[in-house]
Amino acid sequence: EVQLQASGGGLVQAGGSLRLSCAASGFTFEDYGIGWFRQDPGKERERISCIRRYDDKTRYADSVGGRFTVSKDNAKNTLYLQMNNLQPEDTAVYYCNSQGQWGQGTLVTVSS
Q: Hey, how many other C-beta atoms are within 10 angstroms of the C-beta on 40?
């Protein structure tokens, strides 16, 4: 059973940084793509970053490119999202997803 658990969210001032983690279990981590999504209440869930399987190629949404960095540690079965220069519009619940499975999200709140 695929299980994903995001953590690391919190309250931060604009311009600050946070590092999110997504602990994965139930599958061979390096054999699947995995990504970060976020959802603000009243809006659609947005894919913001992903790592492709096998070659670890990364992609970013225009809204976060240059500020966010995705990485993973296959030995720890963990996906990370380093978020720098956070802005109020980054406020959302952040989720990780692999193989169509959603984990429990973590709330990021950025104050102005």
A: 13
* Span between the terminal Cα atoms of the chain, in Å: 40
Q: Which two tokens stand for residue 57?
A: 């190629």
Q: Which residues pair with 107 in a beta bridge?
A: 93
pLDDT tens for each residue of 12-45? 999 999 999 999 999 988 899 999 999 998 899 9
For the chain, the average pLDDT equals 95
Place of tokens 């990364």: 58
User: What values do phi and psi take at 100, rounded to 5?
Assistant: 80, 5
Side-chain half-sphere exposure of 102, counting CA atoms within 13 A: 11
Residue whose structure tokens are 């030995």: 75
